[in-house]
## 1
Amino acid sequence: MRAARARLKQVSRRRVLAGGLATATLAMPTLARAARPVLFGLTPVFLDSDIQLIADLERYLSRQIARPVQLVKRRTYQEITSLLVANQLDAAWICGFPFVQNREQLRLVAVPLYQRAPLYRAYIVTRAGRESQTIHSLRGDIHAFSDPDSNSGFLATRSLLAGLRESPSTFFARTFFTFGHRNVIRAVASGLAHSGSVDGYVWDVMREIEPALVSGTRIQHISEPMGFPPVAAARGGPRLAKRHRCGPDQHAGRSEWPGDPRHVATGWLCRG
């Protein structure tokens, strides 16, 4: 158990699931700098089951911006997005779908670099050992989605089915939301669902930190590259000050995540 926790902390600290989350908060509100902590929202896409990881992340972020940081987590994407739009968070790491939906109320702060590009893919996964070759073979499945506001955990599969003149309700026997990409993997691996829609980078990272769980699934379908989930702030909130220009490496506005370049997460592209 101790060894597993140490491995989880080592991988998670360097990747922070999407890489260098701390460097994204290069820019934080200039108002009331000493009066209150920076409120940074996290959706359920973040692997937050490890309490120590969350504490480590808060400390790291605080050191980077020289201010206390409080991470705010909620069960659904909608809850975090609503707090952000209402200017009750200074910034949040959200999904691309709600960012587009609320484009008039939100502005871009940073975009993570995944494998050195601001892109990722959505996966459809099935139980390991299942003989299925195409998306058509999943017809009639019980299918697990992550969240109604998740791009990779819902919208990507819905779009794929629309191209087949289908919808989730007509193609699958039943669908349900797990409200977490890790929960989608668990549902499929345990047999609660026949297949599921999940963030590709979540599946990739979990394959390293929870190999026993992920080995119960396999990738059935990989989407085209999509824009990585962004860090956003409310348009009506204070402008963000570029204290660190996104992090220690300031070349051309790019922040490189310190550490082994082979790591999945390599930094952020940032905007003030």
Note: The first strand starts at residue 27 and ends at 29.
## 2
Amino acid sequence: MASPAVAATAVVRAAVDRPKSKPVPLGYPVGSNTFQSRVLFILKETAPYSKIINVLELNMTKSRINKIILNSSGIFSDDKLEIITEAFTIAVRSTRKLLQVLPNIDVVFYHNPEMVIPETGIGGNTDTQNIIMIPLDADFGLNQHELMLTICHELHHAARMSQLGDTDSLLKKIVSEGLADQFELEIDPNHHPITYRKDLSSEDIQRGLRDLRQIIQSKDGEYDYYEWFFGYGKYPNWFGYTIGNFIISNYWEKSELTPAELVNQSAEGFIPFLDELIS
């Protein structure tokens, strides 16, 4: 009978020498009948090699995150294409280090000046857990670091949506945006999200917390998204983002749980802490 070392070596060699005619795409689920499962089963029978199993499982089940740049018009210069590519690469690498679960995602970059934050020339929206849209102003001086953090922000949304579903209430949207903004800070502690306003008074914050609590308690939970988040109404611009940042930053400080660790925490789980913040 072959020793564990010989058995494991044979399996690894078989994996290397396996015909490449039908490669399993990256991120393909490891099912009971796949080649990967058979390899892992045999390796798990060889105790001395248990440390490499986790690495193999991680690589075999890693999600696909694709970069798609819409540039048929050639509006993005070579320099901007390089900035986009580098920002994407760093963002995916940084996010993978902190988030354990990411779905398969297409990240689409395109030119649309009407959909960006004027101060940065960058926008972002996670349409579904599998689609992230990043509008850019091709005529704006693109900041690679700012773009990288925006991608990280949206990746956090996608990871959260893959576990908890859509943000179909004001509480869910506020918590989700607060977590994603604070996730940017987790990656770069010297960064300050533009959507976290520090010029609002404590009275403004308390009013927002009380209004949020009232909507949570209401029967229909109706609210005006553009009023809460984009300044169309009684609240200032970025108000919903700021309330979310206030809740999450204080929760992070008290619980010592990071935004990455809180990615799967339900929005409803923050309600008791919200009540503590209301004075």
Note: The two ends are 72 Å apart (CA to CA).
## 3
Amino acid sequence: MCALMPSITPSMTAGGSAPREARTINTETHEEIIAMDELAVRARTLSEALPYIREFSGGTFVVKYGGSAMASASLSQAVMADVVLLRLVGVRVVLVHGGGPQVSDLMRRLGKEPTFVRGQRVTDAETMEIAEMVLAGKINKDIAAKIQMAGGQAVGLSGRDAGLIQARRRVMDSPEGPVDLGFVGQIESINAGLLSSLTEDGFIPVVCSIAGGADGECYNINADHAAGRIAAALHAEKLLSLTDVRGLLRDRSDPASLIARLTVSEAEALVREGQVEGGMVPKLESCVDAVKAGTAKAHIVDGRIEHALLMEVFTDAGIGTMVVPDGP
């Protein structure tokens, strides 16, 4: 049987213990070798992260939170921990969320079947009331509470608060003609000053995808578009969008076909040519909008992976798709 044996050295104290630097290991068990390997990996990880921490400390990240990362308790906990860690190393974080599945669930429980046109929710007055209840009243406050439990200081906000997100009624174009989606909004402006004031004071704003209008109405807006416009308004260093796939794939049936890097022009071409569909369209559009407006880089990251945010931001390789400005 292997045992740990301290070497007898002149620095041994009278009580039989040695200072840490004077102790040597003659023999090691398999478990101890594994433990040392794990410590070495952690040390390398911290060393690799240091230049990125230096680069981004004092900057702003906008995180779009949704998908499996919101539905799973363990993944949700990991995201909150990542967000708080980013704040602790000096990054100003704004978290933007939707909650479409939860809105649909409550609608069905109330006997109202959701209706969609080309992926957009048709939002009558009753649906709008339900959406605001779920997004601003339930999910938003739950996320803020989770951040508090993880050690951060969060402030839950609706786009209607202090004119944070102003929108107008959106009419969708279709081959059959204009489609009125009801209380679905097109974003017109962002109150960046409110968010900047909160982040400067150490708070983490948590923003739901509800907007106000000049007409006093309430509008349902796409959370991806909201995150992109907020990142643009804040001139954020990064927009990070959590999704349920590895990132943007060349072949949607092949997870190994990840596109690790795209320029704005390449991303716009993919959307224009119909090579991107479904929920990935607004995600890619929000990345393009943010980068065009001055956000340095936008990322689409697999939210099913614990601590995906940290792996994308603080490692050399990253794990998702990054959208960058045109040029060298």
Note: Residues 217 and 275 are 36 Å apart (CA to CA).
